[in-house]
Specification:
The protein has about 250 residues and is mostly helical. The chain has two domains: about 1-20 and about 185-230; about 20-185, Orthogonal Bundle (MetI-like fold). Helices cover about 80% and strands about 0% of the residues. The chain has twelve helices and no strands. It has helices spanning about 5-10, 15-20, 20-50, 55-65, 70-90, 100-125, 130-140, 145-175, 185-195, 200-230, 230-235, 240-245. The two termini are about 40 Å apart.
Length: about 250
């Protein structure tokens, strides 16, 4: 049976894969920060109905959500260097494309991908804040952005947190495609290990276990954060997300 499936190998190679966990987490966290920042800007543009920018934001969100992340990674990896080469040729600049790490291309692609989804999550959360509170802030002389920072965002974050948590889990799993940008994270290292031993199935089982455990840890952390941020009346009636689904 060991010739078909080596059960012991599944667990013995996990430590080798975990050596690349920091790269996976770094890639995911930076991409998520970029995704939330761009998503917030896109959400504000759509809520405020800024002329021209709203149409651009709507088109951008539709385009990103309508194309696979793998294609976006390839476009970033091959397209961004072509753009800088064109700038060098057109304007005589001396930007060295070879000095840019594939990590940067992966962050850009993953961050932009997440921003399109986060924009809708954040927009819904911002719109959930009562208009009466915004009008009260305006009557006190606050600008929209002052009210956004002091009133709207603190309340909206409790609404957006579950969706943003799902986005974080999604981007962590999305980092498994970063090998297309020549980034050696856990999945890429798994492919390397599998190529040495020809035990690809065991390697992918090991990777599945690691990603599953990471997801469980993140879910538990998010539940604690949700309880901390919840309004006292909501805490008494708090029902975990998994129980709601059940």
């Amino acid at each position: 049976m060991s010739n078909i499936f080596d059960f012991k190998l599944v667990f013995t190679q996990i430590p080798n894969l975990l050596l690349y966990l920091p790269i996976t987490l770094e890639l995911a966290i930076i991409s998520m920060i970029l995704g939330i920042t761009l998503g917030l800007l896109l959400a504000i543009v759509k809520i405020r109905e800024v002329p021209v920018l709203k149409q651009i934001a709507t088109f951008f969100i539709s385009l990103i959500r309508g194309t696979p992340i793998l294609v976006q990674l390839y476009i970033a990896y091959f397209g961004i260097p072509m753009f800088f080469k064109w700038l060098n040729y057109q304007y005589g600049t001396d930007f060295k494309v070879a000095d840019v790490s594939g990590f940067i291309y992966a962050v850009v692609a993953l961050g932009i991908n997440q921003s399109a989804y986060n924009a809708e999550f954040i927009r819904a959360a911002l719109l959930s804040v009562g208009t009466g509170q915004i009008e009260a802030a305006s009557s006190l002389g606050m600008t929209y952005f002052q009210a956004l920072r002091r009133i709207i965002l603190p309340e909206a974050i409790t609404v957006a947190l579950p969706s943003l948590g799902n986005s974080l889990i999604s981007v962590i799993k999305g980092t498994s495609l970063a090998f297309t940008c020549a980034v050696v994270e856990m999945t890429a290292q798994g492919k390397i290990i599998g190529g040495r031993s020809y035990r690809y199935f065991e390697v992918y089982i090991s990777l599945a276990i690691i990603y599953w455990v990471i997801t469980i840890i993140i879910e538990q952390i998010l539940k604690l954060i949700e309880k901390r941020l919840a309004i006292p009346d909501q805490v008494a009636n708090y029902v975990p997300e998994d129980e709601v689904r059940a």
